[in-house]
Amino acid sequence: MAEPAPADAGLGLVAVTPPGHGRGPAPRDLSIGNHARLLGRIAAGTGCDVVAGHGLRADIALEMTALGEFSGPLALLSPVLPLGDEARELALLDRLAHVPVPGTAAWTRARSPGVNMPSP
After folding, report:
1. Burial of residue 84, with CB atoms counted within 10 A of its CB: 0-12 exposed, 13-18 middle, 19 or more buried
2. Taking the CA atoms of the chain, what radius of gyration do you get in angstroms?
3. Distance (Å, rounded) from C-alpha 89 to C-alpha 69?
4. Between 81 and 17, whose confidence is greater?
5. Which one, of 20, 80, 16, 22, lies nearest residue 44 by Cα?
6. DSSP state of 48
7. Which residues pair with 53 in a beta bridge?
8. Which region, left, alpha or beta, applies to residue 45 given φ > 0 means left and ψ of -120 to 50 means alpha?
9. Distance of alpha carbon 32 from alpha carbon 56, whole angstroms
10. Cβ 103 vs Cβ 82: under 8 Å
11. Which residue pairs, CB below 8 angstroms and at least 24 apart, start in 49-56?
């Protein structure tokens, strides 16, 4: 039995390629934040209820929400999630791990409940 088309279920679909991707011209500011603002305007202009993103577009969707550009549900597929500060914390823990006592103490603390650090 065939599934009803999204339009028959009252759903509208809009596929958007971020500016500078595909054949569109690139904006001057290529940051994820700027892409989130630009795509947030498109989402608002089209009456978007849900934003779906894959890879870098999933990161843009997260940033849309963080910046208040979109407040609906997100469908995120394989977000890239740049590590930023987490990468520095892990690098420090890795360096400390080669020093027996401080390294053990640092990793033990990192794994403690309530500590917001990535596990090894």
Report:
1. exposed
2. 20
3. 30
4. 17
5. 16
6. -
7. 76
8. alpha
9. 9
10. no
11. 49/73, 50/74, 50/75, 51/75, 52/76, 52/77, 53/77, 53/79, 54/78, 55/79, 55/80, 56/32, 56/80
Banded model confidence at residue 115, pLDDT cuts 50, 70, 90: very low
**pTM to 2 decimal places:** 0.61
Q: For 27-61, how does the pLDDT look when each residue is reduced to its tens digit (9 = 90+)? A: 888 888 899 999 999 999 988 889 999 988 898 99
| Residues making up the chain, counted from first to last | 120
Question: Do the beta carbons of residue 81 and residue 55 sit within 8 Å?
Answer: no
